[in-house]
Task: inverse folding
């Protein structure tokens, strides 16, 4: 229900300091007072406590979007090193790894079964 707020948090907010009841962030440019108030209201409504929301000039942490992109890049690089994927990439020049998704273990897997091993070709799904 809060698409604008979600986009703001994912793409602009660089957390400088966070603790329960207080968040300080750098939004990388001009931020309207309305968005700060919207964030404050959302946090208060969903946590049931008052929040102090402050803008900062400190650089802060990477945005959620940047963090996700870095994680996706690392997953693609790791997948491209898998022997089976390497063979496919060599067989089809110009092919690339676009997306890496975790697959659920088979429904027949028993509790306590070994986790998925990305080095085992039987545990890897290729679309």
Result:
């Amino acid at each position: 229900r809060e698409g604008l707020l979600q986009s703001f948090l994912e793409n602009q907010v660089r957390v400088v300091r966070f603790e329960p009841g207080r968040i300080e962030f750098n939004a990388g440019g001009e931020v309207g007072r309305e968005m700060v108030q919207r964030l404050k209201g959302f946090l208060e409504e969903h946590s049931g406590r008052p929040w102090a929301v402050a803008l900062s000039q400190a650089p802060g942490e990477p945005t959620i979007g940047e963090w996700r992109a870095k994680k996706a890049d690392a997953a693609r690089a790791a997948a491209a090193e898998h022997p089976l994927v390497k063979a496919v990439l060599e067989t089809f020049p110009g092919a690339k790894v676009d997306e890496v998704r975790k697959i659920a273990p088979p429904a027949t897997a028993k509790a306590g079964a070994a986790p998925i091993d990305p080095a085992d070709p039987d545990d890897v799904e290729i679309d």
Observations:
- The longest helix spans residues 64-80.
- The first strand starts at residue 14 and ends at 19.
- The chain is about 40% helix and 10% strand.
- Residues 54 and 106 are 47 Å apart (CA to CA).
